Amino acid sequence: MSVIKREANNLSFRQCSLTQYSLFRSLQVNHLSTMLLTLLLLPAIRRTTASTWAPRIILLTSEVHYWADLPERTAPNILTTLNNSTAWGTANRYRVTKLFNVLFVQELARRLARSPLLGDRSIVVSSVNPGLTNTNIGVGSLSFIVKKLLFGRSAERSAITSVYVATAPEVAKLTPYGRYYSNCMAEEAADLTLGVEGEELAGRLW
Question: May I ask which residue range the UniProt record assigns to the signal sequence (predicted)?
Fold first, then answer.
């Protein structure tokens, strides 16, 4: 297995949308399920490191992670606090899950870099912003549908950065891994992900 590309998006405009596990649907679909499946596939992709090709893990996030508001980041258990919050609005709920995607990628990259199981081999871990795409996400909001029709990209155009990160040789040379890509360029992620505080937040979220 050479490339894992994971994308799961749920943007629910219902007042309260919970899964059978009593989790906010957007939190489970956008973050927890994506994180779990990625970790379950790690043994398979780790075996690929024996080849000359550096395998890659790519998680799709969104530029909206820049605007995520996370006062719960100081709580003893961030996920439990968020899931029990009645004030967690739909828009910010989605932004926070996209922030969690970026933090997960950064923390996974750090842990893989320290793993003795990889030796001198590498797994390239990245998060990718495909941009606003004209898909069926957010069908419950007329304003969101109009925004997609006016400014949304086609699925083909939105896939360009993912393909670049999955195949470009220079991506494997740009270390440390865990970088955020948009429009085929590595960019600085949100302030909440940066520095010692960002690393601590990612570790606690893990």
Answer: none
- For residue 198, what pLDDT is reported? 97
Per the annotation, the verdict on 62 as an active-site residue is yes
Number of domains in the chain: 1
Average pLDDT, stretch 144-150? 50
Q: Which residues, including other chains, have CB under 8 Å from residue 134's CB and lie 6 or more apart?
A: 148, 149, 152, 153, 154, 155
Q: Assess whether 148 carries a catalytic annotation.
A: no
| Residue 151 CA: distances (Å) to CA of 144, 184, 206 | 10, 19, 34
- The one catalytic residue in 12, 26, 62, 126 is 62
Half-sphere exposure of 8 (CA within 13 A, CB side): 18
Which entry of 12, 94, 162, 181 is annotated as an active-site residue? 94
Say yes or no to pLDDT of 97 above 90.
Answer: yes
Give the active site residue among 26, 98, 127, 177: 98
Give the residue-averaged pLDDT of 122-127: 93
Looking up residue 51, the CATH number of its domain turns out to be: 3.40.50.720
With beta carbons less than 8 A apart as the criterion, state whether 46 and 102 touch: no
Give residue 184's domain range: 3-205
SS3 content of the chain, % helix, strand, coil (to 5): 50, 15, 35
98 catalytically annotated: yes
Q: Look up residue 11 and give its two tokens.
A: 């943007």
